[in-house]
Design goal:
Oligomer: single chain
Helix content: 10-25%
Number of domains: 2
Number of helices: 6
Strand content: 15-25%
Largest sheet: 8 strands, mixed
Number of strands: 15
Order of helices and strands: HEHEHEEHHEHEEEEEEEEEE
Length: 253
């Protein structure tokens, strides 16, 4: 383990995982190894995150949250497939389809996980060599959604964004209150957003997650609750920002 840590310390793209989906009997050993890796690299130039994935056969989420790991991957307990609880900052959460379905996932899971403060990752069967069918079209919506959420992550100051379920009537809002709000409407329709912390002009943008279409932004005002209706049917994403970065924005009627 010392040799591994010494060898890859100069690389940026490193995450450590001690073991994948081990039995509950491994808990003490995993905790020890996580602490060992963190302790050994402490005096080195780069500190790579060390993680822990769910345990099979009578494992539980609290074993992950109580661990010394920097990041964890929950399993299905607690609704992480369909209604994931908001990340509370105790751990970096990797919502991994491998631990939730094996082979699975959908567009809604990507958006819900992202807006609840998690990092959704997809175990992609792609060419079918290892699992699944080759080039199965069922997984295209997942791949596209991963790209769409990544694009929004790059547009916002993601480090300042945290889940704020209370700011949206849908319960899905990733926000830096007063500056940026990303809202998900799983069923589409209308939404109420609390913009009390925002002053002055705001730019509102509708996004169609099923097609990737972005509607031209419009200007509105903060300072209170705002009710908006999606201009299309089906699931919708609403982006509200105080940054005047959207050329061609026009006043809201």
């Amino acid at each position: 383990m010392r040799k591994v840590v010494d060898t890859v310390n100069d690389l940026d793209n490193v995450l450590y995982e001690i073991v994948n989906e081990a039995q509950p009997e491994s808990t003490a050993w995993q905790y020890h190894m996580i602490e060992f890796v963190k302790r050994h690299q402490r005096a080195k130039p780069k500190q790579h995150p060390v993680g822990m994935t769910p345990q099979r056969r009578k494992g539980n989420q609290e074993v992950l949250f109580n661990s010394p790991a920097d990041w964890i991957s929950p399993d299905t307990a607690g609704g992480y497939r369909t209604e994931p609880p908001a990340a509370d900052g105790r751990k970096v959460l990797l919502s991994d389809t491998d631990h939730l379905w094996g082979l699975g996932g959908n567009e809604e899971w990507v958006w819900k996980s992202f807006l609840r403060g998690m990092n959704p990752i997809f175990m992609d069967p792609y060419d079918g060599v290892v699992l699944g069918q080759a080039f199965d079209p069922r997984w295209e919506p997942v791949r596209r959604s991963m790209g769409y959420t990544h694009a929004y992550a790059e547009r916002m100051n993601l480090a300042a964004m945290t889940p704020h379920d209370e700011l949206s009537s849908t319960g899905y809002c990733l926000a830096n209150p007063g500056t940026d709000y990303l809202v998900y409407l799983p069923q589409g329709g209308s939404v109420d957003v609390d913009l009390t912390a925002a002053a002055g002009n705001l730019w509102t943008e509708w996004f169609v997650p099923s097609t990737g279409l972005t509607y031209p932004p419009i200007v509105t005002k903060g300072g209170g609750w705002l009710s908006l209706e999606a201009p299309f049917s089906g699931a919708a994403v609403l982006y509200i920002t105080s940054h005047a970065t959207h050329a061609g924005a026009k006043p809201r009627d």
